[in-house]
Every structure is written in C-alpha cells, then in structure tokens.
Request: fold
Amino acid sequence: MDAYKNPLYYEIAFSFIDPKEQVDSFEKLIKEFSKTEAKRFLDIACGPSLQLREIARRGYDAVGLDLSPEMLKYLEAKAKEEGLKIKTVKADMTRFRLKEKVDFAFIMMGSLDVESNDKFLSHLNSLAASLNSGGLYFIQNMGFDWTQAPKQSWTMKRDGITVETTYESHFKDVINQISTEEMTLEVNDNGVRKMLVHKRDLKHIFPQEFKTLVRLNGKFDFLGWWQGDCNKWDLDQPLEKVKTLNNSGNMTLLRRK
Ligand SMILES: C[S@@+](CC[C@H](N)C(=O)[O-])C[C@H]1O[C@@H](n2cnc3c(N)ncnc32)[C@H](O)[C@@H]1O
Reply:
C-alpha cells in the first residue's frame, strides 16, 4: 500500500509539525519580504495540508495543489468537517496553471520533487504564471546536502492509531545526482496492522545549481536560504554561515519579479 494513498495515516505520521507556528512564520516573512498584499495562498504538493487549514481559519483564501486524488479528497473532507473554504487543484507541480493567481506559494516537507533540471525550470514557469508579481515562494527542506544519507524513525499516536515511520535514503546515481528515498509507515489502527511504503528517486539540485537555474529561468529573485527547525526559520542563520547543513531544517525564499 502506498503511503500517499492513505492520507489519514500520513497526516498522523507528520503531525509533529505545528501549523500555527509555521503560518506565523509565513506572516513574518510576508511582512519582511513580500511586495504584494498576501490574500491568496497556494500549497504545492499539499497532501492533507494542516497549513492550509490554519491559513483558511485565519481568513485567507486557500488553494491546495496535489497529484494524488486521495490526498485532495481527504483535504476537502477535512475542510468541510472544520467549516473551512479550501479550493483544491489536481495537477502536476511541473505543469500547471491556476485560473486565479495567488500572492504566496509554499512547498513543505521536501516535496519539491522534480526528475530533472528541465522539469525544475518548467515548475518555475508554471509557478511564475500563477503567482502575482512581488509574491513569495517558500521552499522547505530542499535536500541540498546530498552527503547526508540519514535513517530516521519516529512514532506518533492519535485516536487509538499508532504510526511508526522510518525514513531512509541511499545514493543511486552519482552523475545524475539521484538518491532513492524510502518511507515506511507501520500502522496499528486500533489493533489492525498495516504496512505502507512510499519509494521515490529524488534528483538533488545542488545549492549553486539551484541559484543558476533560478537565474536562468529569470522570473524570480533569489532572496536567500536559512536554517531553522520544522516550524520557524532564523534570518540570522543564512546557510552560508551555518557550519553543518541540516536538510530537514532549511528554507529557501524566492520572489516573483
Ligand atoms: C511528502 S508529501 C507532503 C505533503 C504535505 N505538503 C506535508 O508537508 O506534509 C508529498 C506530496 O506531494 C504530492 N506530489 C508528488 N509528486 C507531485 C507532483 N509532481 N505534483 C504535485 N504533487 C505531487 C504527493 O501526492 C504528496 O501528497
């Protein structure tokens, strides 16, 4: 079973994030860097998006984009249950157009998953067509440091459901900068045991390559990248000054020209 086809278990596995703190951080960044008033937010690869639910609760317009119909259906059901208005769009992040432009776009949890530099450029083009001039693009957890091949595991519990998550990454193809990531969710749902797996090949975009591609695309200003934890980021800690890069804590900020 694929973890992305089981949004409830995915949401429980990643419920260590604090969406209130994250959206507070977005609001601070908007105040500091945005050149447009932020009224409409887009979550790219949104999944169950605890963030969009918090954003909608604060009265902003909220749009979630994802490839997985299961994730979008779950988000729609959650929005309905919580009395929130969230628009969903089923699309590929490397090829999409929104009917109405947004003022702030974000992508969380290392979800910027493109197979090649051409696809990354196509992603930037899609976003440029959907983001108002002066609006920010916030990217969390780019896997810039590919010398890290971490194995992590953690356990989360809710409503009688326990989810034990294991995440592993292995180098696969040095020339094409690809590693294989595997995430396993071992679920005990009130006594019923299930095993969910998600495996993907991730094309690493190295830091200087990232900056060059953004410049080549030409539609965004690179504002910087900083270290933090998973909920807030420290503008006193640009990655250039950090001694040890921590992929799971970084954020990168672009602004639509
Ligand atoms: C790691 S989950 C992140 C979910 C959520 N944003 C979070 O922070 O927990 C990655 C999500 O990206 C979606 N996804 C994967 N490839 C995609 C693509 N090419 N375009 C749009 N969504 C994609 C998956 O369906 C999944 O919901």
About this structure: The radius of gyration is 18 Å. Residues 87 and 155 are 31 Å apart (CA to CA). The pocket of S-adenosylmethionine is lined by residues 4, 14, 45-47, 49, 66-68, 71, 92-94, 108-109, 111, 113 (CB under 6 Å). The chain has a mean pLDDT of 95.
